[in-house]
Design goal:
alpha/beta, 294 residues, 6-stranded mixed β-sheet, 10 strands, 37% helix, 4-stranded parallel β-sheet
């Protein structure tokens, strides 16, 4: 029988049929909420923890520590429990209650940092703890095992599911691991596949998508691997998340709504093509937030 770790990946594609108004273009969402931890972050969480164990970086008695906006923390909490390692997760205090409680349900210790410091404050505290030598910080923003998970699995799954017909790949950009890994793989198969990233407009706050200050730009991000970046407003992402649920029966969060906005915008511009975007997680992570309130 498979363990919980064996269930990570192999998520389905579903066609967007009502919101896509271009009959000559197929638009598909990759439903990452089907991972056992409920999001795309299960993939890099497994890859990073397994990599640290294999390389001997995670020594007996050490704890893991990581700064997270939510989904990565849940995934790390699940994987850490499965392999018998203690973990502390640090996140901004504006995180939804569902995320905090889910991490705690897996046995993780959760530390909340002031909202005004955003993710940067959480990262700083994680670095301070790691500097004591008692913790290993996985550093999802600079750990190659993050994007390698998507190079090894997510990219090949998309290529196979579309029978190599994909023309455009669209992803939110947070740690940028997903877009970096998938870009590497798809470009090796067909250099003409266009890679499209999304980031928030100035002043917008979209969980899972960031416009990073230069000092905190993820070390794994290589801008040349992204052909185009589309700015998405908080209102656009929220509205699309609600539309995905009501019109496509795709229940997801705000970052998935942002990716869908970009994917449908790309589809409108094309004469023909196959567009795939990442549906990062499930909408039940946001029920305590105003996201699904009209």
């Amino acid at each position: 029988m498979p363990s919980i770790l064996d269930l990570v990946g192999s998520t389905p594609l579903v066609e967007v049929t009502h919101l896509n108004l271009n009959p000559n273009v197929k638009v598909y969402g990759k439903l990452e909420g089907h991972n056992p931890g409920g999001s795309v972050k299960d993939r890099p969480a497994l890859s990073m923890i397994q990599g640290a164990i294999d390389r001997g970086e995670l020594k007996p008695g050490m704890k893991l520590v990581e700064a997270t906006s939510g989904n990565t923390g849940i995934a790390l909490a699940m994987i850490a429990k499965a392999v018998g390692v203690e973990i502390e997760l640090i996140m901004p205090e504006h995180a939804t209650a569902e995320r905090v409680k889910t991490m705690q349900a897996y046995g993780a210790k959760v530390i909340l940092t002031p909202s005004e410091r955003s993710m940067e404050g959480s990262i700083d505290l994680a670095r301070e703890k790691a500097a004591t030598g008692e913790y290993l910080m996985l550093n999802q923003f600079g750990n190659p095992d993050n994007y390698k998970a998507h190079y090894r699995h997510t990219g090949p799954e998309i290529w196979e599911a579309t029978e190599g017909k994909i023309t455009h790949f669209v992803s939110a950009m947070g740690t940028t691991g997903t877009i970096m890994g998938v870009s590497r793989y798809l470009k090796e198969q067909n250099p003409n596949v266009q890679i499209v990233g999304t980031q928030p407009t100035e002043g917008s706050r979209i969980p899972g998508i960031r416009r990073w200050p230069e000092a905190y730009l993820p070390a794994i991000f290589e801008p040349e691997r992204v052909d185009r970046i589309i700015d998405i407003s908080q209102e656009e992402a929220s509205t699309m998340a609600r539309k995905l649920a009501k019109e496509e029966s795709i229940f997801s969060g705000m970052s998935s709504g942002g990716a869908a906005v970009a994917a449908l915008r790309v589809a409108e511009e094309l004469e023909e093509g196959v567009v795939v975007f990442i549906v990062c997680d499930r909408g039940d992570r946001y029920l305590s937030s105003p996201l699904f309130e009209e």
